[in-house]
Specification:
154 residues; Helicase, Ruva Protein, domain 3; 7 helices
């Protein structure tokens, strides 16, 4: 019995959000609808936590989004219709994996484009340094030569 309690408390300690996020009163009676809801909620961002899905988050807003998603599925919406409804209401930020359409392509391409630009500028800098003439040592002027000779004689 003690081993079971330790195992349960260890799993709650390691996975606290997964153990507590979806409340029993949120679970749908139809197991197929519940499975769809759980799968879809893994792709929706908690707007409070911002780095967790609504399936993992304990925030009240995440609970509201889970309930809204389940209501849409019970109403007969397809997966894409339910997600589209939530995106229309909360914006594309609610998606953990935003689409690549519209202006989002610029965000997706910005990282690789900046890397290529940095590599290009680095190559130009190195090439420019290689082509630069080596600095020549300037000799001493006649006045400096004369002064040096005087110092050495002393």
């Amino acid at each position: 019995m003690f081993g079971t309690l330790v195992g349960i408390s260890a799993s709650v300690g390691v996975f606290p959000s997964a153990a507590l996020a979806v409340q029993p009163d949120e679970v749908l009676d139809d197991p197929m609808l519940e499975a769809r809801a759980r799968e879809l909620s893994k792709g929706l961002r908690c707007l409070v936590c911002q780095n967790e899905s609504i399936d993992e988050s304990n925030a009240p807003l995440a609970r509201d989004l889970r309930l809204l998603l389940r209501d849409r599925l019970v109403a007969g919406d397809s997966d894409s219709e339910a997600i589209a409804f939530i995106v229309e209401r909360y914006g594309e930020f609610v998606l953990l994996r935003p689409t690549t359409g519209g202006w989002n392509w610029l965000l997706w391409a910005a990282g690789p484009l900046m890397l290529l630009a940095a590599l290009g500028m680095g190559a130009l800098y190195v090439r420019g340094r290689a082509d630069a003439a080596a600095p020549r040592e300037a000799g001493l002027s006649p006045d400096e030569q004369k002064r040096l000779q005087e110092i050495l004689k002393e």
